[in-house]
Amino acid sequence: MTRFTRIALGLALAGLFLAACSLAGDVTPPPGARTIVNAPAELPTQPPVTSAPVQPSAGTEAPVALAPSGRPSAAEGAALFAEHCAPCHGDTGNGDGPMAANVPGGSAAVPKFALPDLARQASPQTWFGVVTQGRLDKFMPPFNEKLSDTQRWNVVAFVYTLSTPPDQIAAGQAAYDANCANCHGADGQGQGPDAAGAALRDFTDSTLAAAFSPAQLFDAITTGAGVADHAFTSALSEDQRWATVAYLRAFAYDYFAPGSP
Which residues partner with 64 through β-bridges? Predict the structure, then answer.
């Protein structure tokens, strides 16, 4: 077997792996694609830049928008997830889709979005970067040519709902209304009756919400984020704080209960 024949055979086998994964579709992966990781150590005080190209280490990579241009819809993301992601990731995000067995390592190697610990560590920017540029090391192709920016943000919004069911959202709303709404406002825009003109964060701002992970919000609620008498370790249990985080995040996108028609 000549060297050229061996290379051609290797490329053909790689193509079979991509074809086996339903995410592949008809997208041609760009060379040098890599995962984008964007999880700032502290909550940003200013909205991030709305878009910027990712500087490639080699070859050409798809630019990654750092925030959605509008309010993401988890309902629209649910339909896209069912078509493009569920065959590998499973209908409920448990990594048990019918094509998961074709991924190297099988179902165990497919990220399980239904696990809260996984979703809590990732910022929307991070997951949007993965959907945009793919994970070729995991045989996941990029979707920058198959789905628009808006569609990819919608998918990201839905993925978070897989680990935040409606009962958790309801518990978060109850905790928020009792402990946060007086300052941050019932609508999350930072204009509650006790705000006294303070410049409080607008939780409905999807540009700002895209920049940090649920874990960072949880830390801010737990420690008070440097604000005196603002820690909620005694007023709210750990579960209540996580529920509050889920509800806070839902201010910035249109929530859709997983499993709804």
Answer: 52
Interior CA angle at 215 toward 212 and 216, to 5°? Answer: 50
Per residue in 95-122, pLDDT (tens digit) is 999 999 888 888 888 999 999 999 999 9
Query: Which pair of structure tokens corresponds to residue 236?
Result: 């709210």
Burial state string for 199-210 with b = 16 or more CB within 10 A and e = fewer than 16: ebbbbbbbbbbb
Q: What is the pLDDT of residues 117-165, one digit of tens each?
A: 999 999 999 999 999 999 888 788 899 999 999 999 999 999 999 999 9
Residue type at 113 in one-letter notation: F
Nearest to 126 by CA among 177, 102, 160: 160
| φ, ψ dihedrals at 147, nearest 5° | -125, 145
Q: Are 240 and 171 in contact (CB under 8 A)?
A: yes
Handedness of CA 94, 247, 214, 254 (dihedral sign): positive
Rounded to whole angstroms, the Cα distance separating 25 from 21 reads 8
Candidates 40, 21, 13, 8; CA nearest to 135 is 21
| DSSP state string for 26-65 | T--PPTT--------SS--SSPPPSEE----SSS----EE
Identity (one letter) of the amino acid at 221? I
